[in-house]
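Researcher: Quick sanity check before group meeting.
Model: Go ahead. Protein one:
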Amino acid sequence: MGAKPARTVRRHHTHLLLPQASLGDPQRVLLDESLKPAGWTADPDQSSSMSLQWRRGRDGLRVQTLGWFPLLLTVGPLGRVTSVHRDAVARLTAAVTANGGRTFTDRQLADYLPQAQLRWQRALTERRRLAEAERVLEGRRCHRCGAWSEPEMTHCTGCRLRFTQADDAEWNAVVAQASTTIDAAQAVLADLARGVRLERIDHGGASGGVRHG
């Protein structure tokens, strides 16, 4: 007797990508509003910063975050899939694609997830650069005692050293460099959120020739 044919495994998850950094309020509203007309109600007790869950009678639906920059989501039913779930997924997909997003197959998802990790690591690097540069603009640091003073101060708040014209010139140069860094970091983060390929991001970061995106 011949071997029985392998059983086909049907997957009931849909993968969606939105050209935004993370699952914030605008994205939550977009998804929620697409389901409300079909009678779905958000379940705040089962939702988090990483996921969303809805209920319609005895049916449940969950959206889980898989990646950031851009936002990668997977959508699946809670329990046995029904036509109600399929309609809900179609509504979510339509809302995402209408807002510049796209869908992923399982195969595409497997290829993309390692790239998503690289993109998140790059975003962390740019966020650190941004935070450090913004800190510089909040005040000037004394070269003698290391204390921070408000930018408009003429004397150090720590040791009372009077800032000279040379100190002012040095501070102006630091501010100019910090402003350039802020612009570059913000541009990279915006590109990452939109899904721009890493090798095309050349705003002063460290991606070099990484060929993922």
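Researcher: Fine. The other one?
Model: Protein two, sequence then structure:
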Amino acid sequence: MILVPLGVSSATPTAQRHLPSMALWRDGQVFLFDCGENTQMQMLKVGMKRSKIDYIFITHLDGDHYFGLPGLISTMHIQRRERDLTIVGPVGIKEYLDFQIKFSGLELTYDIHYVELEEGFEGGTVIDEDEFTVESKPMIHNKFCLGYRLQEKDKPGKVDADKAKGMGISQDEEFKALKAGDNVTLDDGTVVKSDDIVGPNRTGKSLAYITDTRPCANAVELASDSDILVYEATFGNKLKDKAEETRHSTADEAAKVAKAARAKLLVLTHFSARYTNEFLLYKEAKEVFDNTWIANELRAIYTDPKTEGGMFKPVSFKSKDDFKKGGRSSSKDRPDNKKSGGSFKKRRMRPRKGGSGSSSSSSSGGSRSSGGSSFSKRPTGKSSYYKSDSDDRRRSSSSSKSDRNDRSEKRDYDSTRGKKVDNDSKPEIKPRNNFDDYDRF
């Protein structure tokens, strides 16, 4: 299983954080937990196909948790989806989406199956498939809110093929029977027991997704012995009164739930917009529960890094090398590079024709005239800062050449980012905070 945080903000988006949504990839299927605005765009950025979504689980009907659904459903329709989609959530989610679909005049190319849970629901299994189940329990919030747990069913142990062949097993049907737990009788009457060939069952992975709640017994039960617990950390300890008033949890309380539930990994999410540095919340939680992580948008969390690692990577982020080059792609990647068979040539600038007035040579290339266009030709140098002739005329005739050079250097801009740079020494890209260089997963 691979968990990809798509949005980790609470109530309102910020410049760095989007509204709540988590995508869980499992064996080619995608399970979406909450669907805030911009969810589908975040999926594009991480390289996750929206057509692979089979289940969507909505915790409650606060807009920040489901306003992304109409756009996502419309996109699936435009892509000619045919496979059924299942949406689980509180009563009212079907009425809302039916209105949006009807109002938009859509005739969907696929069917939507709704599992609506009424207020007063005490908990139970809401999805039961051959390989996994999804359980839900009500939380404590200012409106009816649900938590979810996806649990893989135990898988049969591995067959010791060499040992089986040594005991006379040779047919595929015999191997399948042993793996299913059945004993096999050979032609000579020898009985080969499944327990002697097949190892112990492999426990399935589990994910608990709990947000918008006060700490409660249902949260602990739902997260019991989970591999990954995604839990809200809307506030810090200093705003515990605010958390109680709005029926949310602090980072410290999230850690206490994880510890009581014996979760293997706690992933904090749902941060209030008042926290520009969510790692302050991380520090509070880690003091209580050591194996705590921050949900970083588009940074995947793997339950089996050896086989899953690297499957999902942000595709819209610039690399460190790109930043060193001022945001430009490498010349090796440019299609017009000579090495790739293109016909890239350095642009030659023709000197500007003289006018009626006196002309002076520009320090950045080309010649200026007091007559003609108000802007000079684009300089051939690395920087591209346009200078007006009128600006030149405003300069005092007493200014020395060295003064003009100083002013030109101060106006040297990076051609692609529009910021002042020092061409001699560009700063290294540093982690945004003390925790960002950890090898997280």
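Researcher: One line on it for the slide.
Model: The radius of gyration is 31 Å.
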